[in-house]
Design a protein that fits this description.
Chain lengths: ~375, ~375
């Protein structure tokens, strides 16, 4: 392998103000910027590009070191030498979604019209809007057709949306622990998080950045509530059970149990790396997500134009946030639309966040699917 | 049926300050008061008394009209003429737990030592402490041996605790949608609620009552988070799906979806009827609950002294808060201890709160069990 195969790239790409991003709502974002990071090199025939879409609170730093935390990228189990997405073979692109807070334009960005942070004047974006912005980046990188769009959780929703919005621009799509719509329970769980943030007086009606405040307590509560949904009951029990932090109970409201201490830590560390308004906007985008909306023929109709895309749908048995039934519904609709769809249900008790763990069956499933997609595309 | 059979009674019972309630923590409550309500009349042989224990946010108003809301009692599906617990046949006692906020001594009560509301100076209570207080009430009512202790959710935990703490004082115990310990996930979910309350600046370190404030926003968030756990994913989906409040999306953070509006209503109406510190104390009691704690022989050892009590354990298949596996563990331990235990697993998709609904199978199970217990006790 030469240097090029290990090349890393990326940074920020800003689109011209006279080419605004027109959103599903009808609103527009002028001077859209997207933060991205690439691993590996684009082949001369430009056929080895994989776009990786991130989940709610993640970012473009899917491999390598995270510049803020110094920790390995969030998908180091799937992206790296010898792994399913290998910089020696693939040109892997990670990008922060529009609405995010890791460099892409979002509610914490400066509104060019006012010179102040957008706050709640930022327009509501959708999963389709995130994909719309990504399509611009992919085009700017000179890629006509991606080998694959791959994502877990909200990233999986984006992979499905890519196939619906731009079927001719991708050869394959991998949706892991995702869904084609947010359920009532999904919406309810997100609403709790939003209400926790908006209940914090330091949220200041969304204007905290301009006023020098930070709704840290509310954001921490939102994160704690969400974090429970990322794990299974069995995983929490195995990891923590009823183990105490110290000998004996405090007979008070300190963190007596290890699981309490763990949750508090999850909340406290989250507020250091994430913006509260981005949390509102991205959860809203997920809640608005429903690929079958407005289609009399439902999900199968949505996938009709994507019948030439190869799909791999992966679900985890203990994922109660996006249960396997949601993935099965996607596969049924893909079958009805005449698309090629592999379905892998992985038996694990690790819950939703299994998509981020080093699961051998997941690695094998993604690796096998991407290799066969490359082969079908005529790559050795 | 004469007037006596429909008699209602109750009020507040205050115990003498020189007979304090000694708690599991070693702390004591002087001048303990318990609010209670009774339905029906105690038979001359005092063999028809049923103590009903309430869940986290409920109270002594299990039947009749609730004095604050004017709505029917929370167990009107099981308590009433012709129902499993019938004031014409039974003397039914409901009482607000110690630590509660519906008339029993709790953190919002006036500390006789200071003349101000206890707030966080109120001692942490346990499920066993709640039962300890109830035993005093039962004794004061002249009842040597209850026909049954019946409860759902936290009430079911109290029913099990009664059998362990005072096996000679009850003939039968009915535990519905309960457990013998709080799991890591149960603790985690409660901790989110507590953190939401304590994050509210109007909580004032627990001193809000003395300072004329109310942590309404934090308490509402805690309630919203908890309420989701009381329903199943399927029930939420059937009830609300992705139905909108109005035609079209708001493209903002209003309650677009009916499930959001429903949750907000649950939060807002809860703060009118419940005290935030009581929420902290009662959730803490539940988290501390583990009948097998400190027993080398586990749960079976805990139940060893209760082998003469007849048990009925009822669980709902879609209850993910206290899954049927927890009830099965209780039944296995009862069997190992040599106690009589009926187990009824009710197939429903209505989730944990099914114990509050008019479920014919639940009604039949509770009714059949109580009738056979009465028969075994020699009542016709």
């Amino acid at each position: 392998m030469g240097e090029a195969s290990r090349a890393e790239g990326g940074g920020e790409i800003a689109f011209r103000p006279d080419a605004p991003l027109i959103l599903d709502s009808g609103a527009r974002i002028e001077g859209l910027a997207l933060a991205y990071r690439t691993f590996g090199a684009l082949d001369p025939d430009r056929s080895n590009a994989i776009l990786v879409c991130h989940a709610l609170t993640l970012d473009q730093h899917l491999a390598g070191r995270h510049p803020a935390t110094g920790r390995p990228g969030w998908w180091s189990s799937l992206v790296g030498p010898g792994l399913p997405m290998d910089p020696a073979r693939h040109f892997i692109i990670g990008t922060n979604v529009v609405g995010g807070c890791m460099g892409s334009t979002g509610p914490s960005s400066i509104d060019p019209g006012t010179g102040r942070p957008y706050g709640l004047t930022f327009p509501v974006v959708t999963i389709a809007d995130m994909v719309r912005a990504q399509e611009r980046l992919v085009t700017a990188l000179g890629i006509e057709r991606l080998l694959a769009v791959v994502g877990g959780s909200m990233g999986g929703m984006q992979a499905l949306q890519w196939a619906v919005s731009y079927p001719e621009r991708l050869f394959a799509a991998v949706c892991i622990a995702g869904a084609a719509r947010h359920s009532a329970q999904n919406i309810a769980l997100h609403e709790v998080g939003r209400q926790a943030i908006m209940a914090d007086p330091d949220w200041r009606g969304g204007n905290y950045a301009a006023e020098g405040a930070r709704p840290e307590k509310g954001l921490a509560v939102a994160r704690m509530a969400a974090h429970i949904t990322y794990l299974s009951e069995a995983a929490l029990q195995r990891k923590f059970g009823r183990e105490l932090q110290r000998d004996g109970l405090s007979w008070g409201f300190d963190a007596d149990f290890q699981v309490e201490s763990y949750l508090r830590h999850q909340g406290a560390s989250f507020v250091d790396r994430f913006d509260a308004n981005s949390y509102l906007y991205i959860t809203r985008a997920m809640d608005y997500f429903d690929l079958s909306a407005g289609r009399a023929g439902g999900l199968a109709e949505a996938f009709a134009a994507a019948r030439d895309v190869r799909f791999c749908v992966i679900a985890f048995t203990s994922d109660w946030l996006y249960p396997t039934a949601e993935s099965r519904a996607v596969v049924r609709a893909l079958n009805a639309a005449g698309a090629r769809a592999s379905f892998v249900e992985i038996d694990t008790d690790k819950g939703h966040d299994a998509f981020l763990l080093d699961e051998p069956v997941l690695r094998a499933a993604v690796g096998g699917f991407l290799d066969s997609a490359a082969l079908a595309r005529g790559r050795a």
